[in-house]
């Protein structure tokens, strides 16, 4: 296809910013509309998961956009899982045979900002404070609303939906065509806490690991940040016993941690503030039969296939989507052909990773401290 046409991206999160960079570098005229303000001026207000596990899949995509060096300068290597069994000593389970097979902890806000800079440098035009509010697909006109509620109508050639799990573009497409949407809540939520640096400014626990405190039906994990802090995430059922609902106040939350995460609690001196300030996030899997509306709109990233975070692959998978769509838009004969090829290529991959992410929750919270299971896994690797 001629890459001089105008493309409209909805959402400047992780997928939107990377896609804008890739497409603008190829010569497309790219506009990006993001409902939030510019994080480079206003500070990042991402609202969820402070840091993310970046794997080779995602790194490969960042390389295509020339972003590897910038991102890796702020990444912390995680060479394996550091498992903290109830009452036992921590043990490291390596991801691979050596440090050539590792994953990386990256800060969501900084990553997003680096990618927005790259998108602009490549020639994309970013419009902040612009929420997609509706689409007239017949007239090929999209309606955006700013923070004051003032609307703005815009003609488009095609819409690329990177507006996340609660996608407004997906809702607009669903009014035109059956997307076969299935939304499967996990029934578990998460809350984030922080391990600060030690008194001497160093790390309080092993820096180069993804820490897991498995407790059967629930768990805590912790990922390192470059400031020598760790972001701790408690994953717990929303209802039942134990659950977030069964922890109605700070005293109950503290007592729960003292009993079940006795080794982690002393690492979190601001537990009370963190618990009170950070809301409980929910988790779900989203599956769609259809990712595009002929050549007029396509969905990617969480807008097409939100997943639970236990394989640490939602962002990585979204980045792979961007690379694939960028390539197919250049290769295909028209938008509809590109979007159909994109769906055929990426949907089976996304669905496989979604299934693995659900399975990995059980492994992380229940089996990483099971000696028989670990022995079996070692034998399979030999
Ligand atoms: P988002 O990052 O959600 O971006 C969507 C953007 O669209 C946002 O900027 C939003 O403001 C904007 N937007 C929304 N609606 C509109 C609208 N109507 N108009 C305009 N703009 C709009 N993935 C990993 O790979 N590794 C991990 O370790 C990992 N950990 C996670 C931990 C947790 C607790 C959670 C919840 C997720 C985790 N993920 C992880 C998944 C990862 O966060 C997502 O897969 C990733 O953010 C998807 O990127 P996206 O750009 O599709 O969506």
TrEMBL record:
Keyword list, A-Z: FAD, Flavoprotein, Monooxygenase, NADP, Oxidoreductase, Pyridine nucleotide biosynthesis
Top-rank taxon, per record: Bacteria
Name of the molecule in the record: Kynurenine 3-monooxygenase
Q: What does this protein do?
A: Catalyzes the hydroxylation of L-kynurenine (L-Kyn) to form 3-hydroxy-L-kynurenine (L-3OHKyn). Required for synthesis of quinolinic acid.
Q: Provide the reaction this enzyme catalyses.
A: L-kynurenine + NADPH + O2 + H(+) = 3-hydroxy-L-kynurenine + NADP(+) + H2O
Q: Which coenzyme or cofactor does it need?
A: FAD
Q: Locate the FAD-binding domain: which residues?
A: 8-353
Query: Covered range within the whole protein?
Result: 1 to 382 of 451
- This enzyme's EC code(s): 1.14.13.9
Q: Name one GO molecular function term.
A: FAD binding
Q: What class of enzyme is it?
A: oxidoreductase
Q: Which family does it belong to?
A: Belongs to the aromatic-ring hydroxylase family. KMO subfamily.
Which pathway does the database say it acts in? Answer: Cofactor biosynthesis; NAD(+) biosynthesis; quinolinate from L-kynurenine: step 1/3
Quick one: which gene encodes this?
kmo
What biological process terms from GO does the record include? Answer: anthranilate metabolic process; kynurenine metabolic process; L-tryptophan catabolic process; NAD+ biosynthetic process; quinolinate biosynthetic process
